[in-house]
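re the bet — no i am not wrong, look at it urself. input seq straight from the record:
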Amino acid sequence: MPRIRTLTDNEQESFDRLPAFDRRVRKKFFDFPKSLLTIAATMRNSDYQIRFLVSCGYLRATRRFFVALDFLGLTPFNETVVDALARCFVLRSDGAHLPCRAGT
């Protein structure tokens, strides 16, 4: 049975692309509860922690998951999101995190 085509190629590409966040929106969707930070703190290294938190933030914003490779800097904006989270969420084993530097 043939697939029904509901989106044009441009619409599909737009749908599959990570959303662009400005500082205000990023702060809204990447403000995590302590329980989620505690889970992230149990992960082996900061790379896993950041990827987990980025996935949680995008899921919260869009209600869907994205391929992990999308977070690895395919666009300059994505690097901005990951860099901002890396600065903000240096997690300790108790789930606490160091405060963000000004400007993130």
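see?? Residues 41 and 73 are 23 Å apart (CA to CA). told u. also The first helix runs from residue 9 to 16. so pay up
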